[in-house]
Design goal:
alpha/beta, TIM Barrel, 8-stranded mixed beta sheet, 11 helices, globular
């Protein structure tokens, strides 16, 4: 017997709300510098914890995405914003936050010839100029397979290149818009060829109806293109119009998948229900570097 009823949210997914001085200060700063964060736009469940700890993931290239992925809460439409001064403002905010590790992502900008790669590169360079000791991680779109655009980003030498596969191959076309499973693998492969010393990273959402075998196959595909860091988290349906959640994955299953990923050769695996791609990102880069040195 099948049912379309939404599964009941379990106790382990309770989110602690922390809106102290750090949270309010970061929110005010983002507004004053006209900056966007994926923390807000994608309704990340960890925003209270991360902002309270003075960490945030900057979202460049505006807040309107040219794609309409069925899992994502970011606004979609035709972007009107291309702010060439945005990289400097991101760098200034990173200085104010005194960051040691900065994560930069973006909406998809398929309306731009290079998909926004030049703005990513400029942002990396601006942060480095103002905060030389701050590591920079970029979470990029697939640039519609424009490998020249990817090279622009890789030539700017981010400390981590992140591109999310999001789900298993069978579900990819239903969950993502325009992005292709095999193109994601090709991007990660080419990124590693362009800059072998830069760690690559990807993320899988669980609870969309994937099987354990499919998760392991996706891990194997990522390792085949030498992806170094993996994050796994629970998919949470942002609204009734988004793709339905199939099930809530128990923390014990996430713990086992972490062991499986490490066995397969990932240098670091972050795996828990509330994990998102940039959650504890500063710890991921440190762990990956330590494991790579062994």
């Amino acid at each position: 017997m099948t049912t379309d009823a939404k599964p009941k949210k379990p106790d382990w997914l309770r989110i602690k709300l922390t809106t102290g001085d750090n949270y309010r200060e970061i929110k005010d700063m983002m507004r004053s510098k006209t900056l966007h964060t994926v923390c807000e736009e994608a309704r990340c469940p960890n925003i209270y914890e991360c902002w309270a700890n003075r960490t945030a993931t900057f979202m460049i290239l505006g807040d309107i995405c040219t794609r309409a992925c069925r899992f994502c809460a970011v606004k979609t439409g035709l972007p009107t914003e291309l702010d060439l001064q945005e990289p400097e403002r991101v760098a200034e905010a990173a200085v104010q936050m005194n960051l040691r590790h900065c994560v930069v992502t973006s909406v998809a900008r398929d309306d731009l010839k290079d998909g926004g790669a030049s703005i990513f590169a400029a942002t990396i360079k601006a942060i480095r100029a103002k905060l030389p000791l701050c590591s920079v991680e970029v979470l990029i779109p697939d640039f519609m397979g424009n490998w020249d655009a990817l090279k622009v980003v890789m030539d700017a030498k981010p400390d981590i290149l992140n591109h999310n596969v999001e789900t298993v191959e069978r579900l990819s076309d239903r969950v993502r818009a325009k992005a292709k499973y095999r193109r994601t693998m090709e991007l990660l492969r080419r990124a590693k060829e362009m800059a072998p010393d830069i760690p690559t990273k990807s993320s899988i959402m669980l609870g969309l109806g994937e099987t354990l075998e499919e998760i392991h196959r996706t891990m194997d595909d990522l390792r085949e293109v030498d992806c170094n860091i993996l994050t796994l988290g629970q998919y949470l349906q942002p609204s009734k119009s988004h793709i339905k959640i199939a099930r809530y994955v128990h923390p014990d299953e996430f713990a086992q998948l972490k062991k499986d990923g490490l066995t397969k050769g990932f240098s670091h695996v972050e795996s828990a229900p509330l994990v998102r791609s940039s959650y504890h990102a500063h710890e991921q880069v440190q762990s990956a570097a330590a494991n790579a040195a062994r």
